[in-house]
Amino acid sequence: MIANAMLTLTPEASLNRLPVTLPGEPTRPARHWVSTQALHGLMLDEDPGDERSVRQFLRTFDARNPQDECILTRYANRLMTVLKTALRADYWAQGSPFQQGYAHCWRQCQRLVLGGGLSSDAFGRALMAALTGGLDGRELALSPYGGQTGLVGLATLWSQPSPLLVMDFGATGIKRGLVDERGKLQSLPELNVDHWLNDDGLFRADAFQAVLHDSRMAVGTALPTAISLACYMKDGQPYDYRSGVYHRLIDDSPHLAHSLDQQWLPKAGLGRLVSLMHDSSAAALAFPSPVPAIMVTLGTGLGVGLCPLDDPTVA
After folding, report:
1. Residues 138, 21: one domain?
2. 33 and 98: one domain?
3. Could you tell me the end-to-end alpha-carbon distance of the chain, in angstroms, rounded to an integer?
4. Which residues constitute the domain of residue 226?
Protein backbone atom coordinates (compact mmCIF):
# COMPACT_ATOMS: atom_id res chain seq x y z
CA MET A 1 0.00 0.00 0.00
CA ILE A 2 1.19 3.53 -0.81
CA ALA A 3 0.76 6.42 1.59
CA ASN A 4 -0.44 9.70 0.10
CA ALA A 5 2.77 11.45 1.06
CA MET A 6 4.86 8.93 -0.90
CA LEU A 7 3.06 9.06 -4.25
CA THR A 8 4.32 11.66 -6.71
CA LEU A 9 1.64 12.22 -9.33
CA THR A 10 2.47 11.62 -12.98
CA PRO A 11 0.51 12.13 -16.24
CA GLU A 12 -0.96 8.68 -15.60
CA ALA A 13 -2.90 10.26 -12.72
CA SER A 14 -4.75 12.68 -15.01
CA LEU A 15 -8.32 13.20 -13.88
CA ASN A 16 -8.94 15.15 -17.07
CA ARG A 17 -8.52 11.98 -19.12
CA LEU A 18 -10.51 9.63 -16.90
CA PRO A 19 -13.21 7.96 -19.07
CA VAL A 20 -16.63 8.82 -17.63
CA THR A 21 -20.04 7.66 -18.82
CA LEU A 22 -23.16 9.67 -18.02
CA PRO A 23 -26.59 8.02 -18.30
CA GLY A 24 -27.68 8.01 -21.94
CA GLU A 25 -24.42 9.61 -23.09
CA PRO A 26 -21.30 8.23 -24.79
CA THR A 27 -18.16 7.77 -22.72
CA ARG A 28 -16.06 10.93 -22.67
CA PRO A 29 -12.99 12.17 -20.76
CA ALA A 30 -13.96 13.78 -17.46
CA ARG A 31 -12.88 17.23 -18.69
CA HIS A 32 -15.62 17.03 -21.33
CA TRP A 33 -18.25 17.04 -18.60
CA VAL A 34 -17.07 19.47 -15.92
CA SER A 35 -14.40 21.87 -17.23
CA THR A 36 -14.88 25.62 -17.56
CA GLN A 37 -15.77 25.05 -21.21
CA ALA A 38 -18.34 22.43 -20.22
CA LEU A 39 -19.96 24.80 -17.74
CA HIS A 40 -20.13 27.49 -20.40
CA GLY A 41 -21.78 24.98 -22.72
CA LEU A 42 -24.47 24.33 -20.11
CA MET A 43 -25.06 28.07 -19.80
CA LEU A 44 -25.65 28.35 -23.53
CA ASP A 45 -27.85 25.24 -23.53
CA GLU A 46 -30.16 26.91 -21.03
CA ASP A 47 -30.04 30.33 -22.68
CA PRO A 48 -28.34 30.65 -26.10
CA GLY A 49 -28.40 34.43 -25.61
CA ASP A 50 -26.54 34.35 -22.29
CA GLU A 51 -23.60 36.73 -22.78
CA ARG A 52 -22.06 36.18 -19.37
CA SER A 53 -18.57 34.75 -19.13
CA VAL A 54 -18.12 31.82 -16.76
CA ARG A 55 -16.45 34.17 -14.29
CA GLN A 56 -19.46 36.50 -14.45
CA PHE A 57 -21.81 33.55 -14.02
CA LEU A 58 -19.97 32.46 -10.88
CA ARG A 59 -20.30 35.96 -9.42
CA THR A 60 -23.94 36.48 -10.39
CA PHE A 61 -25.27 32.95 -9.82
CA ASP A 62 -28.68 33.02 -8.18
CA ALA A 63 -30.34 29.75 -7.18
CA ARG A 64 -33.72 31.52 -7.35
CA ASN A 65 -33.23 31.98 -11.08
CA PRO A 66 -34.67 28.85 -12.79
CA GLN A 67 -32.01 28.87 -15.52
CA ASP A 68 -29.16 29.17 -13.05
CA GLU A 69 -30.67 26.45 -10.89
CA CYS A 70 -30.94 24.13 -13.88
CA ILE A 71 -27.30 24.78 -14.82
CA LEU A 72 -26.25 23.99 -11.25
CA THR A 73 -28.27 20.76 -11.16
CA ARG A 74 -26.89 19.50 -14.47
CA TYR A 75 -23.32 20.42 -13.55
CA ALA A 76 -23.62 18.85 -10.08
CA ASN A 77 -24.98 15.61 -11.58
CA ARG A 78 -22.07 15.48 -13.99
CA LEU A 79 -19.51 16.16 -11.27
CA MET A 80 -21.07 13.57 -8.99
CA THR A 81 -20.66 10.95 -11.73
CA VAL A 82 -17.05 11.99 -12.33
CA LEU A 83 -16.20 11.78 -8.61
CA LYS A 84 -17.90 8.42 -8.13
CA THR A 85 -16.09 7.05 -11.18
CA ALA A 86 -12.78 8.26 -9.77
CA LEU A 87 -13.52 6.85 -6.31
CA ARG A 88 -14.25 3.40 -7.79
CA ALA A 89 -10.89 3.72 -9.59
CA ASP A 90 -11.59 0.75 -11.87
CA TYR A 91 -9.87 2.43 -14.81
CA TRP A 92 -6.59 3.01 -12.95
CA ALA A 93 -6.67 -0.36 -11.18
CA GLN A 94 -6.26 -2.05 -14.57
CA GLY A 95 -3.24 0.06 -15.52
CA SER A 96 0.46 0.36 -14.71
CA PRO A 97 1.93 -0.33 -11.26
CA PHE A 98 1.81 3.42 -10.60
CA GLN A 99 -1.86 3.58 -11.56
CA GLN A 100 -2.65 0.64 -9.33
CA GLY A 101 -1.10 2.50 -6.39
CA TYR A 102 -3.02 5.60 -7.43
CA ALA A 103 -6.26 3.57 -7.56
CA HIS A 104 -5.56 2.52 -3.97
CA CYS A 105 -5.38 6.20 -2.93
CA TRP A 106 -8.77 6.90 -4.49
CA ARG A 107 -10.39 3.81 -3.00
CA GLN A 108 -9.03 4.61 0.46
CA CYS A 109 -10.05 8.27 0.23
CA GLN A 110 -12.33 9.32 3.09
CA ARG A 111 -12.45 13.06 2.37
CA LEU A 112 -12.75 15.07 -0.85
CA VAL A 113 -11.96 18.79 -0.99
CA LEU A 114 -13.21 20.92 -3.89
CA GLY A 115 -11.13 23.92 -4.91
CA GLY A 116 -10.27 25.92 -8.02
CA GLY A 117 -12.03 28.72 -9.83
CA LEU A 118 -15.33 26.89 -10.44
CA SER A 119 -15.71 26.27 -6.71
CA SER A 120 -15.81 30.01 -6.05
CA ASP A 121 -18.53 32.37 -4.95
CA ALA A 122 -22.23 31.53 -4.69
CA PHE A 123 -22.05 28.82 -7.35
CA GLY A 124 -19.36 26.97 -5.43
CA ARG A 125 -21.40 27.04 -2.23
CA ALA A 126 -24.53 25.87 -4.05
CA LEU A 127 -22.53 23.13 -5.77
CA MET A 128 -21.25 21.94 -2.42
CA ALA A 129 -24.81 21.76 -1.07
CA ALA A 130 -25.97 19.83 -4.14
CA LEU A 131 -23.20 17.24 -3.76
CA THR A 132 -23.32 16.78 0.01
CA GLY A 133 -24.46 13.33 1.09
CA GLY A 134 -24.05 11.75 -2.32
CA LEU A 135 -20.58 10.23 -2.02
CA ASP A 136 -21.30 7.03 -0.12
CA GLY A 137 -20.40 8.33 3.32
CA ARG A 138 -17.24 10.17 2.32
CA GLU A 139 -16.80 13.66 3.70
CA LEU A 140 -16.97 16.54 1.26
CA ALA A 141 -15.38 19.93 1.95
CA LEU A 142 -15.20 23.19 0.00
CA SER A 143 -12.05 25.28 -0.08
CA PRO A 144 -12.86 28.81 1.12
CA TYR A 145 -10.05 30.08 -1.11
CA GLY A 146 -11.56 29.22 -4.51
CA GLY A 147 -9.10 29.88 -7.33
CA GLN A 148 -6.44 31.01 -4.84
CA THR A 149 -6.22 27.65 -3.10
CA GLY A 150 -2.90 26.89 -4.79
CA LEU A 151 -1.36 30.12 -3.49
CA VAL A 152 -2.53 29.31 0.02
CA GLY A 153 -0.99 25.85 -0.29
CA LEU A 154 2.33 27.29 -1.43
CA ALA A 155 2.27 29.68 1.53
CA THR A 156 2.31 26.68 3.91
CA LEU A 157 5.83 25.86 2.71
CA TRP A 158 7.21 29.05 4.26
CA SER A 159 8.08 29.42 7.93
CA GLN A 160 10.61 32.26 7.81
CA PRO A 161 10.01 35.72 9.38
CA SER A 162 10.25 37.40 5.99
CA PRO A 163 7.96 37.79 2.92
CA LEU A 164 7.53 35.18 0.17
CA LEU A 165 6.31 35.59 -3.41
CA VAL A 166 3.91 32.81 -4.46
CA MET A 167 2.92 32.21 -8.10
CA ASP A 168 0.38 29.76 -9.51
CA PHE A 169 0.74 29.25 -13.28
CA GLY A 170 -2.63 27.87 -14.38
CA ALA A 171 -3.97 26.99 -17.80
CA THR A 172 -5.69 30.35 -18.32
CA GLY A 173 -4.48 32.63 -15.53
CA ILE A 174 -1.32 33.28 -13.52
CA LYS A 175 -2.26 34.05 -9.93
CA ARG A 176 0.26 35.75 -7.69
CA GLY A 177 0.45 36.73 -4.05
CA LEU A 178 2.69 38.05 -1.32
CA VAL A 179 2.94 36.10 1.92
CA ASP A 180 3.90 38.43 4.76
CA GLU A 181 5.84 37.71 7.93
CA ARG A 182 2.68 36.51 9.68
CA GLY A 183 1.81 34.09 6.87
CA LYS A 184 -1.03 36.27 5.58
CA LEU A 185 -1.57 36.20 1.82
CA GLN A 186 -2.02 39.43 -0.11
CA SER A 187 -3.17 39.04 -3.72
CA LEU A 188 -1.29 40.63 -6.60
CA PRO A 189 -2.81 41.35 -10.04
CA GLU A 190 -3.60 38.19 -12.01
CA LEU A 191 -2.14 37.77 -15.50
CA ASN A 192 -3.87 36.25 -18.53
CA VAL A 193 -1.90 33.28 -19.86
CA ASP A 194 -3.05 33.87 -23.45
CA HIS A 195 -1.11 37.13 -23.53
CA TRP A 196 2.15 35.20 -23.06
CA LEU A 197 1.66 32.29 -25.47
CA ASN A 198 3.68 31.90 -28.65
CA ASP A 199 2.26 31.22 -32.12
CA ASP A 200 2.01 27.51 -31.27
CA GLY A 201 -0.12 28.28 -28.22
CA LEU A 202 2.68 27.37 -25.81
CA PHE A 203 4.21 29.10 -22.81
CA ARG A 204 7.99 29.06 -23.23
CA ALA A 205 11.10 30.30 -21.42
CA ASP A 206 10.94 33.88 -22.72
CA ALA A 207 7.36 34.23 -21.45
CA PHE A 208 8.27 32.69 -18.10
CA GLN A 209 11.12 35.14 -17.64
CA ALA A 210 8.93 38.08 -18.68
CA VAL A 211 6.31 37.12 -16.08
CA LEU A 212 9.01 36.82 -13.42
CA HIS A 213 10.27 40.30 -14.32
CA ASP A 214 6.71 41.69 -14.14
CA SER A 215 6.30 40.08 -10.73
CA ARG A 216 9.58 41.58 -9.53
CA MET A 217 8.26 45.00 -10.49
CA ALA A 218 5.05 44.27 -8.56
CA VAL A 219 6.78 43.32 -5.29
CA GLY A 220 9.67 45.77 -5.55
CA THR A 221 12.36 43.59 -4.00
CA ALA A 222 14.26 40.31 -4.43
CA LEU A 223 11.91 37.91 -2.66
CA PRO A 224 12.26 34.13 -2.41
CA THR A 225 9.66 32.54 -4.65
CA ALA A 226 7.44 29.43 -4.58
CA ILE A 227 5.85 28.38 -7.86
CA SER A 228 3.16 25.94 -8.92
CA LEU A 229 2.61 24.94 -12.52
CA ALA A 230 -0.30 23.29 -14.37
CA CYS A 231 2.01 20.48 -15.40
CA TYR A 232 2.96 17.17 -13.82
CA MET A 233 6.57 17.17 -12.63
CA LYS A 234 9.12 14.89 -11.06
CA ASP A 235 11.85 16.42 -8.90
CA GLY A 236 11.30 19.85 -10.43
CA GLN A 237 11.24 18.86 -14.11
CA PRO A 238 8.05 18.52 -16.20
CA TYR A 239 7.27 15.16 -17.69
CA ASP A 240 7.58 14.93 -21.47
CA TYR A 241 3.92 14.71 -22.42
CA ARG A 242 1.88 16.73 -24.85
CA SER A 243 -0.82 18.35 -22.80
CA GLY A 244 -1.39 21.91 -21.69
CA VAL A 245 0.58 25.07 -22.43
CA TYR A 246 3.63 24.45 -20.23
CA HIS A 247 4.85 21.00 -21.22
CA ARG A 248 7.46 22.18 -23.78
CA LEU A 249 9.40 24.05 -21.11
CA ILE A 250 11.47 20.86 -21.05
CA ASP A 251 12.91 21.98 -24.40
CA ASP A 252 14.06 25.26 -22.82
CA SER A 253 15.79 23.84 -19.77
CA PRO A 254 17.60 20.60 -18.88
CA HIS A 255 16.04 20.96 -15.42
CA LEU A 256 13.38 23.60 -14.86
CA ALA A 257 13.74 23.99 -11.08
CA HIS A 258 17.51 24.42 -11.42
CA SER A 259 17.13 26.95 -14.25
CA LEU A 260 14.62 28.93 -12.19
CA ASP A 261 16.78 28.93 -9.08
CA GLN A 262 20.13 29.60 -10.72
CA GLN A 263 19.24 31.66 -13.80
CA TRP A 264 15.68 32.85 -14.43
CA LEU A 265 14.79 34.14 -10.95
CA PRO A 266 18.13 35.94 -10.39
CA LYS A 267 17.94 37.45 -13.89
CA ALA A 268 14.51 38.85 -13.02
CA GLY A 269 15.85 40.30 -9.76
CA LEU A 270 14.07 37.77 -7.52
CA GLY A 271 15.43 35.53 -4.78
CA ARG A 272 15.88 31.79 -4.51
CA LEU A 273 13.36 29.17 -5.56
CA VAL A 274 11.61 27.72 -2.51
CA SER A 275 9.57 25.13 -4.40
CA LEU A 276 8.34 24.17 -7.86
CA MET A 277 5.41 21.78 -7.94
CA HIS A 278 2.21 20.68 -9.70
CA ASP A 279 -0.58 23.20 -9.17
CA SER A 280 -3.16 20.85 -7.69
CA SER A 281 -0.55 19.31 -5.41
CA ALA A 282 0.12 22.83 -4.15
CA ALA A 283 -3.61 23.33 -3.53
CA ALA A 284 -3.74 20.08 -1.57
CA LEU A 285 -1.10 21.42 0.84
CA ALA A 286 -3.71 23.85 2.19
CA PHE A 287 -5.74 20.92 3.58
CA PRO A 288 -3.77 18.49 5.75
CA SER A 289 -6.04 15.71 6.93
CA PRO A 290 -6.06 13.03 9.63
CA VAL A 291 -7.61 10.62 7.09
CA PRO A 292 -6.74 9.94 3.42
CA ALA A 293 -8.01 12.96 1.48
CA ILE A 294 -7.88 14.20 -2.09
CA MET A 295 -8.09 17.73 -3.47
CA VAL A 296 -10.01 18.15 -6.74
CA THR A 297 -9.56 21.50 -8.47
CA LEU A 298 -12.26 22.61 -10.89
CA GLY A 299 -11.24 25.08 -13.57
CA THR A 300 -10.01 25.04 -17.15
CA GLY A 301 -9.61 21.32 -16.53
CA LEU A 302 -9.71 19.02 -13.53
CA GLY A 303 -6.71 18.78 -11.26
CA VAL A 304 -6.04 16.37 -8.46
CA GLY A 305 -3.67 16.50 -5.51
CA LEU A 306 -3.19 14.21 -2.54
CA CYS A 307 -3.69 16.09 0.71
CA PRO A 308 -0.85 15.66 3.23
CA LEU A 309 -1.65 13.30 6.05
CA ASP A 310 -1.42 14.51 9.63
CA ASP A 311 -0.22 10.98 10.36
CA PRO A 312 2.08 9.97 7.45
CA THR A 313 1.94 6.29 8.50
CA VAL A 314 -1.69 6.10 7.34
CA ALA A 315 -1.90 4.35 3.96
Report:
1. yes
2. yes
3. 6
4. 148-280
Q: Does residue 124 sit in the same domain as residue 199?
A: no
Residue 41's Cβ-count burial label (10 Å; 0-12, 13-18, 19+) is: middle
3-state secondary structure of 2: coil
Let me know if residue 249 belongs to a domain.
yes
Give the contacts of 133 (CB within 8 A, at least 6 positions apart): none
Q: For the whole model, what pTM was predicted?
A: 0.93
pLDDT in tens, the chain (315 residues): 234 445 789 999 999 999 999 999 999 999 999 999 999 999 999 999 889 999 999 989 999 999 999 999 999 999 999 999 999 999 999 999 999 999 999 999 999 999 999 999 999 999 999 999 999 889 999 999 999 999 999 999 998 889 999 999 999 999 999 998 888 899 999 999 999 999 999 999 999 999 999 999 999 999 999 999 999 999 999 999 888 899 899 999 999 999 999 999 999 999 999 999 999 999 999 999 999 999 999 999 999 999 998 865 555
